[in-house]
């Protein structure tokens, strides 16, 4: 992961925001070059050689507030995101999954424990192919995040989103954005719970900008969690939000909301 020390020393928020824009735009390409050159090593999940004996992971946690979005102020559903007519987004009942565990690409014991804890699962069902094209989980409690080796609890009064997955044949489309729109609707139905989520840094910039551009909400960095695995032992370190991400959030709010909280560049559907 590129160092952030220069951002911390800078007092120029505009310059920090500019660096964030450049990083968000070209970070994915740089990561691809790095992975091709050094094999399994990557910028925010450092692997030593070709073994998982030593593994470092960095997770950025953030909230998404939608109180100032026009759709919420008007008491309307969030902006819809179009999917092909044969793909239907819906909440999966636990009983339906118990009758057909193959609906979800996760171990049965993991899924059962999630349902028992009160978590809900959103799926995109391809009616033509007869399979799950996408799934995502939400909870007001918490969940174990296996790639950073830790249980993460949602802050009180938040709806935590986790384990978003897209079938390989459907990647590159609008699955994530359709799922996000329905998650915001669910959070609003529960009494305006802010969204709580986490992701790697290079995925953060394009994601939160798209969420803002769709008119769903504005993201605010919450904290960062570093997980270190050494053979069978793990350690975790929690820190404050990255200044780089905070500067990017300021820029997004300036672009997509005016001082009265009115959205100024609302898009009603994904492009």
Offer a concise description of the structure:
The chain has helices spanning 5-9, 13-38, 70-73, 94-99, 108-116, 175-189, 201-213, 243-256; strands at residues 45-48, 51-65, 87-92, 120-126, 131-139, 142-145, 150-153, 159-166, 195-199, 218-230, 233-239. The protein has 271 residues and is of the alpha+beta class. It has a single domain, classed as 3-Layer(aba) Sandwich (Aminopeptidase).
Write the layout of secondary structure elements.
Blueprint lengths: L4 H5 L3 H26 L6 E4 L2 E15 L4 H4 L13 E6 L1 H6 L8 H9 L3 E7 L4 E9 L2 E4 L4 E4 L5 E8 L8 H15 L5 E5 L1 H13 L4 E13 L2 E7 L3 H14 L15
Helix pairs in contact: 2-7, 2-8, 7-8
* CATH architecture identity: 3-Layer(aba) Sandwich
Structural class: alpha+beta
| Major beta-sheet overview | 9 strands, mixed
Number of strands: 11
CATH topology: Aminopeptidase
Please give the CATH class. Answer: Alpha Beta
Question: How would you describe the overall organization of this protein?
Answer:
With 271 residues, the chain is α+β, with helices and mostly antiparallel strands. It has one domain (5-256): 3-Layer(aba) Sandwich (Aminopeptidase), CATH 3.40.630. The chain is built from eight helices and eleven strands. Strands 1, 2, 3, 4, 5, 8, 9, 10 and 11 form a nine-stranded mixed sheet that branches. Strands 6-7 form a two-stranded antiparallel sheet. It is globular. The two termini are 30 Å apart.
């Amino acid at each position: 992961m590129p160092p952030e020390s220069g951002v911390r020393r800078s007092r120029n928020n505009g310059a920090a925001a500019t660096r964030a824009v450049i990083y968000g735009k070209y970070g994915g390409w740089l990561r691809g070059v790095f992975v091709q050159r050094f094999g399994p090593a990557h910028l925010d999940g450092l692997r030593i050689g070709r073994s998982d004996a030593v593994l470092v992971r960095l997770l950025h946690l953030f909230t998404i507030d939608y109180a100032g979005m026009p759709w919420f102020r008007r008491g309307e559903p969030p902006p819809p995101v179009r999917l092909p007519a044969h793909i239907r987004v819906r909440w999966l009942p636990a009983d339906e999954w118990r009758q057909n565990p193959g609906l979800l690409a996760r171990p049965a014991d993991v899924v059962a424990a999630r349902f028992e804890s009160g978590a809900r699962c959103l799926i995109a069902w391809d009616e033509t192919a007869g399979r799950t094209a996408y799934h995502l989980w939400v909870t007001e409690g918490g969940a174990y995040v296996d790639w950073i080796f830790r249980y993460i609890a949602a802050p009180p009064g938040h709806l935590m989103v986790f384990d978003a997955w897209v079938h390989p044949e459907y990647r590159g489309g609008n699955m994530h954005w359709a799922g996000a729109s329905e998650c915001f609707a669910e959070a609003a139905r529960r009494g305006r719970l802010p969204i709580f989520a986490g992701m790697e840094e290079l995925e953060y910039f394009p994601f939160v900008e798209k969420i803002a551009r769709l008119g769903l909400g504005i993201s605010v960095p919450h904290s960062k969690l570093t997980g270190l695995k050494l053979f069978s032992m793990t350690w975790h370190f929690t820190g404050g939000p990255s200044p780089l991400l905070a500067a990017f959030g300021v820029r997004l709010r300036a672009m997509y909301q005016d001082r009265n909280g009115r959205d100024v560049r609302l898009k009603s559907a994904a492009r």
